[in-house]
Specification:
Number of helices: 4
Largest sheet: 6 strands, antiparallel
Length: about 150
């Protein structure tokens, strides 16, 4: 987990936010990591992160069993085309299929946001580690391109 966070920190223009106890972030987010493209180093307003690392279950997101010891999950917005290539299906159909969202080291549609072009990997390792970094780099580049389109 720390290796992935450190890798993203090295992306040009990356802002990695890791809320800690006592911060203004909700307690539920403490210890998780949120990845943004922010070349000025300021948290973007009205922009979702392009990737996250979560270390626990969230109220509506328990399918990956992240409350078990040693489990964590990388979530990446990959978009329509990459989602189709990775999952072999369209985003809108991904949650209609049966998936073992608790499977480790496996690329899966995100259990909540898969229909929006998000994938996830629980405990990336030998099978998915390099792919996760590649997908995070692509999501970072996509976020940079979106900002460039919005900036006059």
């Amino acid at each position: 987990m720390e290796q992935i966070i450190a890798t993203v920190r090295d992306f040009t223009g990356a802002l990695v936010v890791v809320p800690e106890p006592g911060s203004a972030s909700p307690e539920l987010a403490w210890g998780d990591a949120f990845f943004y493209y922010a070349p000025d180093g300021q948290l973007p307003q009205n922009v979702q992160p392009y990737g996250t690392v979560v270390t626990k279950n969230y109220p509506d997101d328990t399918a990956s069993d992240l409350d078990l010891p040693g489990r964590w999950r990388v979530n990446i917005h990959v978009g329509r085309t990459a989602f189709r290539e990775l999952m072999g299906e369209e985003r809108s159909h991904s949650l209609n299929r049966s998936h073992d969202f608790a499977a480790a080291d496996t690329v899966l549609p995100h259990p909540v946001y898969g229909a929006h072009g998000w994938i996830c990997v629980v405990n990336p390792a030998e099978e998915t580690g390099e792919l996760v970094v590649e997908l995070l780099r692509g999501a970072h580049d996509d976020a940079r391109a979106r900002l460039a389109r919005r900036t006059p």
